[in-house]
Amino acid sequence: MAISTRLTQRLGLTHPVICAPMDVIAGGKLAAAVSGAGGLGMLGGGYSDEDDWFEREFAAAGNQAVGCGFITWALRKNPRILDAVMARKPKAIFLSFDDPEPFASKIKAAGIPVLCQLQTRADAERAIDCGVDVIVAQGTEGGGHGGARATLTLVPEIADLIARRAPQTLLCAAGGIVDGRGLGAALMLGADGVVVGTRFWASPEALVPASLHSAALAASGDDTVRQSVLDIVRERPWPARYTGRVLRNDFVREWLGREGELRDARAEQVTRYRTAARVADPAIAATIVGEGVGLIHAIEPAAVILERMVVEAEARLKSGAKLIT
Ligand SMILES: Cc1cc2nc3c(=O)[nH]c(=O)nc-3n(C[C@H](O)[C@H](O)[C@H](O)COP(=O)(O)O)c2cc1C
Known about the structure:
Elements: H1 6-11, E1 17-19, H2 28-36, E2 42-43, H3 53-61, E3 67-71, H4 72-75, H5 80-86, E4 93-96, H6 103-109, E5 114-118, H7 121-129, E6 134-138, E7 144-146, H8 151-165, E8 170-174, H9 180-188, E9 193-196, H10 198-201, H11 210-217, E10 224-227, H12 229-233, E11 243-247, H13 250-255, H14 259-264, H15 266-278, H16 302-321
Parallel strand pairs: 1-9, 2-3, 3-4, 4-5, 5-6, 6-8, 8-9
Antiparallel strand pairs: 7-11, 10-11
């Protein structure tokens, strides 16, 4: 039994599941584990400011075919890193946040599939104009940076747009998908596959400190919040339209809604943050997870997560059909 979609056919995957490119925590080990289990693993790459990161993590992925992600506005500051990555012929390149051009055209011209993660219908119109191969509609439930729209309405709205304007374009859903229920639901909303972050973050292959894993296992989806205070002390000035979903810890509680004051106190708070991040103190350091964290009860190998997600989705889809009398 298998779930075959346009995504599995087009990208040559066994399962319609892509591991999100997550900052520098999605390294070669995680990407290779997901690709090896039949999905598509992605190297995160973070803010494109560490020239040797991709080289090291491609090596860690060994012979597995993996893709690479870029935060598009950060790539604009160091565009030559894209050439180095393209020379390694990744299985796909994933652009998120900000206009995908001129990168999308360049990647496509090299014959590498382009995925574009976005948060609004207007972004999707633009991605279609740019001819991207796969649109990843990211709902606000997701971990990390994103927008305000929910997965449940964003995905079908963009599915309808694609059907009207560019039926050859594929669609993935992202945000809040952690198990077979989420995968099955996303396919029913009109997606060809899913992009999963938080669930794979909670795996031993992800480059995540144990203290942050423990904090996440103790949390519910209620304990996450979209915010910008951590970007201030991490000194990552994101465009205002994107906020980041994280666990609401002591630092976030202290400063949420007082961003101006935090900027004024930046010198001392940046030092405080750096010290805490160095020892991965979850009371201050960012634990970047989505609402789906409340559905995660163990740190498990990526292959186990993927296999269970697919088997559960198959069972759910089959039993759903029985509802029809
Ligand atoms: C720890 C973490 C780091 C992330 N970093 C990035 C990133 O660097 N680039 C990116 O495009 N998306 C990033 N994301 C967002 C994911 O691409 C994806 O949209 C999100 O994880 C999907 O929602 P989920 O976490 O509920 O699965 C990150 C997500 C997490 C959880």
